[in-house]
Amino acid sequence: MRILVVNVNTTTSITEAIGEQAASVASPGTEIVPLTPAFGAESVEGNYESYLAAIAVMEAVRAYPEPFDAIVQAGYGEHGREGLQELFDVPVVDITEAAASTAQFVGRSYSVVTSLDRTVPLIEDRLHAAGLSARCASVRASGMAVLDLERDPQAAVDAIAEQAVRAVRDDRAEAICLGCGGMSGLAERVVERTGVPVIDGVTAAVTIAESLVRLGLKTSKVRTYAPPRPKRMKNWPPA
After folding, report:
1. CA pair distance 9, 204, nearest whole angstrom
2. Residue 207 shares a structural domain with residue 89
3. How many angstroms separate the CA atoms of 239 and 235, rounded?
4. pLDDT in 10s for each residue of the chain, 239 residues
5. Are residues 78 and 100 in the same domain?
6. Which pTM does this prediction carry?
7. With 0-12 CB in 10 A as exposed, 13-18 as middle and 19+ as buried, what is 155?
8. What is the maximal distance between C-alpha atoms in the chain?
9. Are 73 and 5 in contact (CB under 8 A)?
10. How far apart, in whole angstroms, are the C-alpha atoms of residue 90 and residue 97?
């Protein structure tokens, strides 16, 4: 089984970290292929960058030359999953939805701890669109930019853990979702501070993708995710 794990930003060190996290839970015989988009922002922290990333991710997968069995979109609250499902019939798993759906198996309510406050509405909208918002106690911002997670890992852990503790104490969350692909590898340290289950979206998505492939399930093509209709495309792809 081969799973493409696609970073939404162009920072290769984040792609590598996401790939390592994905591989840590992959079953024997599952090949994890991390992909970095050819264009886009170094970090995705707003609507403009998210829409740009959606196109970049779709083009990165379209350009991959070998067969694959599933796709993981490794951006939290980002656009584009639906486009991937139109283009491909393999399972497409978004880490936002993977983390939230997994959290509901281990607690009545969950909270998301993300990076900057400006990304909170994007995540709330994605959870609502996916039908996963009813049991979301809160979406909290750590105040750490995506690239800060690499620059100062200890400060990142402290800021994320502080908001996770507040989510459990003040918002009555019973599980925590790490709301950024760049937070891969931090779950155990947040568990130590909170005492509740902490879900990493990348590992959750890989596990779900593997399960879907083993069940022989593919993306439905009868309506919503039918392939794009053939038509002339002006100046696409751009030179």
Report:
1. 20
2. yes
3. 8
4. 999 999 999 999 999 999 999 999 999 999 999 999 999 999 999 999 999 999 999 999 999 999 999 999 999 999 999 999 999 999 999 999 999 999 999 999 999 999 999 999 999 999 999 999 999 999 999 998 888 887 888 888 899 999 999 999 999 999 999 988 878 778 888 888 899 999 999 999 999 999 999 999 999 999 999 999 999 999 887 76
5. no
6. 0.94
7. middle
8. 55
9. no
10. 17
Angle, vertex CA 62, rays to CA 60 and CA 65, nearest 5: 95
Residue 67 sits in a domain whose CATH number is 3.40.50.12500
Looking at the fold, whether 34 and 84 belong to one and the same domain comes out as yes
Give yes or no for a cis peptide into 28 (omega within 30° of 0).
no
C-alpha to C-alpha distance for 179 and 2, rounded to whole angstroms: 25
User: What is the number of other CB atoms lying within 10 angstroms of the CB of residue 117?
Assistant: 12
Q: Can you read off the two tokens belonging to residue 203?
A: 């590992």
Q: From the CB of residue 1, how many other CB atoms can be counted at a distance below 10 Å? A: 15
Q: Which two tokens stand for residue 96?
A: 């936002």
**Closest C-alpha to 98, from 115, 83, 110:** 110
Token duo for residue 81: 């999953």
